[in-house]
Amino acid sequence: MIVVDIGWKKLVMTKEAAFQLASALESAEIYERKWVSEEDRAEKGVDHTFHVYANDQPFGMEIMSDDLYRMAKLAGKPEKK
User: Fold this and answer.
1) CB-based contacts of 59: which residues, under 8 Å, 6+ apart?
2) Per residue in 47-74, is it b (16+ CB within 10 Å) or e — as a string?
3) Which of 10, 22, 32, 48 lies 20 to 30 Å from 68 when distance is taken between CA atoms?
4) Distance, CA of 1 to CA of 15 (rounded, Å)
5) Angle CA 10–16–18, to nearest 5
6) pLDDT (tens digit, 9 = 90+) per residue, 6-38?
7) Considering the domain boundaries, does residue 80 fall inside one?
8) Helical (H) or strand (E) element with 26
9) Is residue 19 part of a domain?
10) Is 61 among the domain residues?
């Protein structure tokens, strides 16, 4: 199994799925909606601006052993405290 770290969560998937995801992310761009402060609204006339730009953020992948995967799968979702 492969662990993919995209930033907000670490996802576990097969190596085939990880390859497909990496291929899709390679050409993906970042979309950002940016809030405009009260003082700048008069000048710009909007409360948000919208941006699309090249993805320069890396994401990581690591191999997870079968034993670790099975142990973590048995543990399931952690309890919230």
Assistant:
1) 4, 5, 6, 7, 25
2) eeeeeeeeeeeeeebeeeeeeeeeeeee
3) 22
4) 6
5) 25
6) 878 899 999 999 999 989 888 899 999 988 877
7) no
8) helix 15-26
9) yes
10) yes
Say whether pTM exceeds 0.90. Answer: no
17's tokens: 């799925």
Domain range for 28: 2-75
Question: Among 22, 20, 15, which Cα is nearest to 58's?
Answer: 22
Instruction: Report the distance separating Cα 64 and Cα 47, nearest Å.
Output: 45
Name the residue type at position 67: D
Taking the C-alpha atoms of residue 28 and residue 3, their distance in angstroms, rounded to an integer, is 20
Q: How many domains does the chain have?
A: 1
